[in-house]
Automatic annotation (TrEMBL):
UniProt organism field: Prauserella cavernicola
Name this polypeptide is given: Transport permease protein
GO molecular function terms noted in the UniProt entry: ABC-type transporter activity
Domain of life: Bacteria
UniProt keyword annotations, A-Z: Antibiotic resistance, Cell membrane, Membrane, Transmembrane, Transmembrane helix, Transport
Length: 275
């Protein structure tokens, strides 16, 4: 029997259609996993909501916001940004699992667009991020949180959140292709938590020691959290440093820098996976 091999399209438009079609096929594979294993998706959503409720109700009474304001309105944007950063664990685990099991090599042996696996992973994880944001927004509204700068400000805030998640996607894809052992998965999970808490997600950097506050202010998570607090019209932590005075700009520059570094590395790692 002779195998039928489909020649790749030659024109740029045809190649784009080919990549989008194959990328959607890979995305549907992940959506099928959600349908067949819904508890995994639900557990992820519930964990994010649990973190928000725990800090809002258990610890919120002991927290204060520099300059005044409701701590829960300070907290919700921070948790929204935190979940975008923690999403790197989902991406890393999915990529490393597929690579370790040979699924990625199987994809590369098929007559499909070279970018389809990466594109499909990005689409699926961004859809997951949208669901997570929706669940957190509903929980925040139930807690009494709200935005005050209208629909345009809220739309810009959610765009920055997804932009941060996209940057974390490239980082997760690259790490998943390079580090494929179960020990690496555990090590990444251990490292992500300090990155998340060493930020302005839960408390103002002004409450930290000087050197630690400087690290927290320049944290990409802090940049997005501070920017969306401003866009939502929620209370912020103030300060007179450059990150505190230019949060929206920094919230754009950090994801751009991370994408510029890790997007090429992720693509190269995928191409050289079996060499």
């Amino acid at each position: 029997m002779t195998a039928l091999i489909t020649a790749p399209p030659r024109t740029p438009l045809a190649r784009l259609r080919w990549a989008l079609a194959d990328g959607w096929t890979v995305t549907r594979r992940d959506l099928t996993h959600w349908r067949n294993q819904p508890l995994q998706l639900v557990a992820g959503l519930l964990f994010s909501v649990m973190v928000l409720l725990m800090f809002g109700f258990l610890f919120g009474g002991a927290m204060f916001v520099p300059g005044g304001g409701d701590y829960r309105e300070f907290l919700v944007p921070g948790v929204l940004a935190l979940t975008m950063v923690f999403g790197v664990e989902t991406t890393f685990t999915a990529i490393s699992t597929d690579a370790a099991r040979g699924v990625t090599d199987r994809f590369r042996s098929l007559p499909m667009a070279p970018s389809a696996v990466v594109l499909g992973r990005c689409t699926a994880d961004l859809l997951s991020a949208v669901l997570t944001l929706a669940a957190l927004v509903l929980a925040g509204l139930a807690m009494g949180w709200q935005w005050h700068n209208g629909v345009a400000g809220a739309f810009a805030a959610f765009a920055l959140l997804l932009f941060l998640r996209l940057a974390m996607l490239w980082l997760g894809i690259y790490l998943g292709l390079v580090l494929r052992s179960p020990e690496a998965v555990m090590a990444l999970q251990i490292l992500v938590w300090p990155l998340g808490f060493l930020s302005s997600a839960f408390v103002a950097p002004a409450t930290m020691p000087g050197w630690l506050a400087a690290v927290a202010e320049w944290n990409p998570l802090s940049a997005t959290a501070t920017a969306i607090r401003e866009l939502f019209g929620n209370p912020g932590w103030g300060g007179q440093s450059w990150p505190s005075e230019h949060p929206v700009l920094l919230a754009v520059l950090w994801p751009l820098a991370l994408t510029a570094v890790f997007c090429p590395l992720a693509i190269r790692g995928y191409r050289e996976l079996s060499r």
